[in-house]
Design a protein that fits this description.
0% of the residues lie in helices and 49% in strands. It contains no helices and eleven strands.
Length: 126
């Protein structure tokens, strides 16, 4: 049974930082590309960050580039999202996702991901 469990969300003031974690089980973690997405009420889920099997390749949209960093620890089957310089518009439920992909390939399209976590709430106050 594949399971992805996000943690680390909470309330933070604008300009602050949070680190989200996603622990995976039931899959060969090192053979999956991982990604982070977010969704706020009334909006579609949007891409936040992606990382390849080894962590050598990453990709970010312009909205978070320079502020967010995705990383992974394959020994712990965990992917992280370090979020700095947070803005109120970053407020959302953040989801991690897993997709079987070739080595060093990043996946940015929502529909390509096979597994999703339940999400963790991030609220950034102004």
């Amino acid at each position: 049974q594949v399971q992805l469990v996000e943690s680390g969300g909470g309330l933070v003031q604008a300009g602050g930082s949070l680190r989200l974690s996603c622990a995976a089980s039931g899959l060969t973690f090192s053979s999956y590309a991982m990604g982070w997405f977010r969704q706020s009420p009334g909006k579609e889920r949007e891409f936040v960050a992606a990382i390849s099997w080894s962590g050598r390749s990453t990709y970010y949209p312009d909205s978070v580039k320079g502020r967010f960093t995705i990383s992974r620890d394959n020994a712990k089957s965990t992917v992280y999202l370090q979020m700095n310089s947070l803005k109120p518009e970053d407020t959302a439920v953040y989801y991690c996702a897993a997709d079987r992909a070739p080595p060093d390939v990043v996946v940015t399209r929502t529909w390509l991901y096979d597994y999703w976590g339940q999400g963790t709430q991030v609220f950034v106050s102004s």
